[in-house]
Design a protein that fits this description.
The complex is a heterodimer of chains A (234) and B (158).
Chain A lengths: L1 H45 L6 H45 L1 H6 L3 H27 L4 H14 L8 E8 L3 E8 L2 H15 L5 E8 L5 E8 L12
Antiparallel strand pairs in A: 1-2, 2-4, 3-4
Chain B lengths: L1 H18 L7 E6 L4 E2 L8 E4 L2 E4 L5 E6 L11 E9 L8 E8 L5 E9 L4 E6 L9 E8 L4 E9 L1
Classes of the chains: A alpha+beta (234), B mainly beta (158).
């Protein structure tokens, strides 16, 4: 009971103090404002007319500040124009190099997103490729694992898919697979990873379809207990 | 002495909400197993849904696909955590195998993390997905053995 009362008193006192303080601050503000106004009025009425050089001297600091700000803004505009030119150059280069990606899409949003997807993943897979080239080889593990990957294609369900190239190093494996048809690719998607998940649980896959109807998949797989190497983004 | 205690509690609460609350910024979602569907349409009749879970009532294993709602649509470092709550029946013959995939907008490129379970109880299978495609989607695909269940699945985004 006493505690509640004490808390109530403390609360009221705090509230009162805050209210008083704010009132005092507001009064001080008013006094300062009035003083400034009166000084300005005195300057306007008692001092020289605006055309005189003396008054120009009084205004000079303000003009100097404005000039400095304008100069700063001009620099910023110039820098932004340069960046815009660079962006346009990159955009033109992309259009030249990737004409099909631009024409095959239906709208601007899709164009942007599709291009971003492809470049991001391709960059990552290329990074895994270069990372693999720096890895030393765990000879026993790599030979054994490469054999396991090849042997997944022995099952009849994967007869429409052929391993063209398989390589394992220390923490990563890379495999290139050809598929006879879309159905074969679909079967591969399910069966390949499920056969290898105990030793190679994580992976990344890039799939492409050639003009002749053949499908090609590049797969990167990580050794159990290891993650994909992290790519340093800008 | 009492006032000191009250003040200590108030200060502790303020400190807790100020310092600890930001750790909840990770986006977690738990989806019911009943959101899963048969990957091949013919398998749908084998699935029974109830109490938020999905069960394979046929004698053969069925491929199922479980959708995931993605909020962080541009990150490329995968998920901070993901797992699926499952139950594998003692009558099952196939392993309970699942893959968590991150695919690009047209499905031609993907990152995946797999796991499998051959025991006969209710358990959690976790996935370590360390890569994802910007603006792509996530999905869990499972080979659901006979008489076995998917109860729910959870993903935590960065």
């Amino acid at each position: 009971m006493n505690t509640k009362l004490i808390l109530l008193v403390i609360g009221s006192a705090t509230l009162g103090a805050i209210t008083s303080a704010s009132m005092i601050y507001s009064k001080i503000d008013t006094i300062i404002e009035q003083s400034i106004n009166s000084l300005t009025m005195n300057q306007k009425t008692n001092e020289l007319p605006s055309e005189t050089p003396a008054n120009q001297l009084v205004e000079n600091p303000a003009i100097a500040v404005l000039r400095s700000e304008i100069s700063h803004l001009m620099q910023q505009i110039s820098s932004l124009e340069k960046r815009l030119d660079e962006q346009e150059n990159i955009s033109n280069l992309t259009t030249t190099l990737e004409p099909t990606k631009q024409t095959n899409n239906t709208g601007p949003d899709e164009t942007l997103s599709t291009y971003t997807d492809d470049s991001t993943v391709t960059d990552q897979l290329d990074y895994y490729d270069s990372y693999m080239s720096t890895e030393i080889q765990d000879v026993n593990w790599s030979l054994e694992t490469e054999q396991s990957i090849y042997s997944t294609f022995d099952q009849p369900e994967l007869s429409g898919s052929q391993a063209i190239y398989v390589e394992c190093k220390l923490t990563l494996c890379r495999a290139e697979i050809d598929h006879d048809s879309t159905d074969d690719f679909e079967k591969f998607k399910f069966l390949f990873a499920s056969q290898l998940s105990s030793e190679l649980p994580n992976g990344s896959m890039r799939h492409s379809e050639g003009n002749d109807g053949h499908h090609k998949t590049t797969v990167y797989l990580t050794r159990k207990g290891h993650d994909f190497p992290t790519m340093n983004h800008e | 002495m009492n006032i000191k205690t009250v003040l200590a509690i108030v200060i502790s609460c303020i400190a807790y909400f100020t310092l600890v609350s930001p750790s909840y910024s990770a986006d977690s979602k738990i989806h019911p197993g009943s959101m899963c569907k048969a990957y091949f349409g013919s398998g749908e009749s084998s699935l029974r849904k109830g109490l938020g879970s999905v069960k394979n009532t046929s004698t053969a294993a069925v491929w199922v696909t479980c959708p995931i709602v993605r909020d962080n649509t541009t990150n490329t470092n995968g998920l901070s955590q993901a797992y699926i709550r499952i139950g594998r029946s003692s009558t099952a013959t196939a392993d309970f195998w699942c893959t968590l995939d991150s695919r690009n907008t047209v499905g031609t490129q993907s990152f995946f993390a797999t796991n499998s379970y051959s025991g006969t109880s209710t358990t959690s299978m976790s996935f370590n997905l360390s890569g994802s495609t910007s603006r792509g989607h996530y999905e869990i695909l499972c080979l659901l053995p006979r008489d076995s269940n998917i109860f729910s699945y959870r993903i935590d985004e960065y």
